[in-house]
Amino acid sequence: MSITVAELLAEPQLGLSLLAGSDGLQQRITWAHTSDLPRLWEWVTGGEIMMTNGLSIPADPAGQVALAEALVAAGASALAIGEKMHAPELTPEFLEACDRLPLPVINVPYPLPFISIARSVAESSLLEESRRLRQTARIYDLLRLAGPRADQWQALVQGVAAQLDARLYVVDRRCLHPWHPSGEALPAELAGQLQPLIATAPASGKKFQWHHVDGSHVLMMDVPTHDNALLLVLPLSEPHPDAVVLLHAASVLGLELSRTMLALEDQRRLGAEFLAQALEGRYALTDLESRLTSFQLPAEKFLIVSISGLDEESLATIHAELWRHGLANVSLRQSNTLHIILPPECTEDQLRHTLPDDARIGMSRPTGATGMQRALQESLWALGTAASTGRTLVRYGDGPSWLGLTSMEEGQAMVQRLLGPILEYERGKQPDLLTTLKTYLDHQRSWQKTAAALFTHRQTVIYRIRKISELTGLDMAETSSLAQLWFALQIHQTMDPQRN
């Protein structure tokens, strides 16, 4: 067992004396650390006696009190100050704060070297080190023994918690939801108390942060290799879990999360291949239903959601974000649009919570396996409505219509009537006419700018626009004709998945 502050003070050869903080004499010292750097508390991982020659101690009362409070918050067991060195006068406010916190403040007589204190702490910790090694080995063994159980993650967390004699939660620091969908949710009252502490804590840097919540200690530490994964440790007994053992525990949990994320990435690739083939109609109905079920999606009813406005990082990770919030999914990226199949119980609030604030979302009506292609068209129609109205999320059939049309069928009819002759003419060819029409309209009907954008001759552009007029029967000099073609182009581009 590690030495207490009282036991260290009782070492006759050291000659130490207590200046303040007598209520903390039973606090255990896991290590002795020397530092004269500013912000002394940043070098505390929990349980140390911090030894300084005084350069770290402010001269003013407020600064000294802030130092004491920060050391206790970081988990320091005691503060030892070298006598006749560089420490300023310790103020009454500082000593009173140390009594209140409590933080034992120890006078180190001159010329006792700090190494003597460190040696006493180390010698008393030999048995503790042996216990720590056995405890660390048992924690790693939990990972080795982890099997393909449905509750594998939570079983591992509970096993590690038992070894540490603590309650453990692994949460997303951004929202405090469980980082793993099978993880235990943080109690609402505790989440409310921790939220301001997490909001003001750095996302990286200091790995250990002890806090006092309702008279109890709570440790916050990062889970290695996983952004925003935060381990919360609530000790159930004294002494608190050793800092080194805690680091190994976080590493074990991080390894299991990495193993899970690799499997999830494989599933994402398989899901993308499946969805691409399904949307092309390559599956028989029974095969389609079987594959949907294998991805834990109900074949009889699901949603298709189309999303735009995502950056590259979000496009690559949104499947994991959805999974972590309990939403089974398969996704397919086509250019800058992401199409996702989701369970029918997925709510708008869940999507808004999971997706970036600037994402545009179109949701189909609930459908079954036989209506997958139509559901994709509905989600694209809703996405077009979201983009044109500035709304974040639109469900097909809800809210204001897009471009004055009330349904996808009306949009398809408009595209067929206006662009059908062009599409038929270009079938099996390079789509020069549609590309030229879009570029011509985007460049305010300038022959020269359109030719430059298409890297072609001005006369070629003139020929193509005349050909469009011939095929559609529209006068390209009429504003009404151009407006109709522009509307039809917007609908065609939105509802053709290959163009998104």
UniProtKB/TrEMBL annotation:
InterPro entries: CdaR-like_regulators, PucR_C-HTH_dom, PucR_C-HTH_sf, PucR_dom. Gene3D superfamilies: PucR C-terminal helix-turn-helix domain. Pfam families: HTH_30, PucR. Residues 7-123 form the Purine catabolism PurC-like domain. Residues 433-491 form the PucR C-terminal helix-turn-helix domain. This is Purine catabolism regulatory protein.
